[in-house]
Amino acid sequence: MKKVILVGLLFLTLTPHVVKSQNSNKSTVTFELKIPPIALINFAVENQQIISHSFAIASNQVEQTITKTNIDKTWLNYSSIVKSGSSNYITANISSGSLPSDVDLYVFVSPDAGFGAGSLGTPVGEIKLNYYPQNLIINIGSCYTGTGTNKGCLLNYVWDNPKSYDYFINYLHGKPISITYTITAH
Amino acid sequence: MITALIIFSNKLNAQTYVAGDSVPTQNYNVGLIDSNHPYIGMQFNTTTAGLGASPATNSDLFVRLSATARNYGHAYSGSGTISACITAGTVPQGTVFTLISAPCTTTNSGGSLGTPITTPIILSTTDQNIVTNIGTCYTGTNDTDGYQMTFSWYSDNYKQIHSQNTTITITFTITVAFH
Q1: Are B164 and A86 in contact (CB under 8 A)?
Q2: pLDDT at A55
Q3: What ipTM describes this predicted complex?
Q4: Which residue of A has its CA nearest to B179?
């Protein structure tokens, strides 16, 4: 009986090594993968003669001061990463100066120029600017537009009833109108 | 007598060697694998409006190993491999996680160290070879000895990305098969 146990033990302990034609072993490595939410916006302005003082208030907010009618072309560049089930949107509002009661200021936003990738959102087309933020581009998912002019969405300003209001003179008298664009999460 | 046999058996066991050491020829094939165990955190990021979040790469991992063949008393050719697969966690939707190995470092290594696959593999839950034709060899045991692994993480479908933090585990396997 003792012999049987001994032979059995020998078989159990030595066999796995002796007859194996392969010997595998493993090592593991753990990775932390992070995708932070992103909401970035900036202007790219052609010529920059008429529209001035474009600057970033925060990484998700930019402001530009308009000195005359819609002559220069301003492009909105933006980058966005949203959490699941959420979206970003871009709003516009008058953030400095005031319009005479008989003057309206509109901004038209064109569709994305197609140089980026992802879910670039839906431009609403046209809004009459006011002092509170209104949606300009909605349902922005994870995306980027590319940087520079001709990338992203083109803005055009249109003055309504400009005859009663010489905006250029008013600007010279220190009453500029500034528009702020903000990208933020729903 | 029984006790003596068990101790004898443990001494034979390949696990008593450290991966990367030169292991003497045994009565069986040996394949040991380990790494320098780095912390690896990777992040999608951009600070410029209009740019996509930059692809992230990391080359902190060195995999070291020891491989030796049973001595059959005749010539043999090594066909050992290092393979890799995801064994825990999921790569975030809309992104791809790839891996490529550099040739083994030469400072403290010796033997037939094999050949890395030349095209990065897209890591998945299926084991894929990253180094092949490994013969009897050792890599050295220092933190920067062995096969330097470069991981790339990038988006292949940007609109599917969502902000999230996740953890994945990659398992490296050495398989030694001598003929």
Answers
A1: no
A2: 56
A3: 0.85
A4: A21
Residue B1 has pLDDT above 80, yes or no: no
> Using one digit for the tens of pLDDT, what is the confidence trace for A106-118?
999 999 999 999 9
Model confidence pLDDT, tens digit, residues B72-89 = 555 456 678 999 999 999
Contact A105, A157 (CB under 8 A): yes
* Per-residue confidence (pLDDT) for residue B10, from 0 to 100: 35
Closest residue, chain B, to A41 (C-alpha):
B49
Element (H, E) at B133: strand B128-134
Select the residue of B41, B51, B174 nearest A32 (Cβ to Cβ): B41
Q: Could you tell me the CA-to-CA distances from B115 to A8, A76, A98, A144, B171 in Å, in that order? A: 42, 49, 71, 39, 19
- A41 interfacial to chain B (CB closer than 8 Å): yes
Q: Give mean pLDDT, residues A107-136.
A: 96
**Which residue has better confidence, A64 or A34?**
A34
Element (DSSP H or E) covering residue A95: strand A88-96
Number of helical H runs and strand E runs in chain A: 2, 14
Q: Which two tokens stand for residue A58?
A: 């925060």
Distance CA A67, CA A148 (A): 22
From CA A109, how far away is CA A41, in angstroms rounded? 15
**Of residues B7 and A42, more confidently modeled:** A42
Q: Which residues pair with B151 in a beta bridge?
A: B58, B99
Tell whether A4 lies on the interface with B, counting CB pairs under 8 A: no
> Nearest by CB to A38, which of B33, B53, B92?
B53
First to last CA, chain A: 78
- Using the Cβ of B1 and the Cβ atoms of chain A, whether some distance falls under 8 Å is answered with yes
pLDDT tens, B13-54?
Answer: 444 678 888 887 766 677 899 999 999 999 999 999 999 998
Closest-approach residue (CA) in chain A for B2: A6
A33·B153 Cβ contact <8 A? yes
Which residues does chain B have within 8 Å of residue A75's beta carbon, measured at their own beta carbons? Answer: none
Is the CB of B49 less than 8 angstroms away from the CB of A18?
no
Q: And the tokens for A184?
A: 């933020």
Tokens matching residue A83: 């959490």
Q: Searching chain A, which residue's CA lies closest to the CA of residue B152?
A: A33
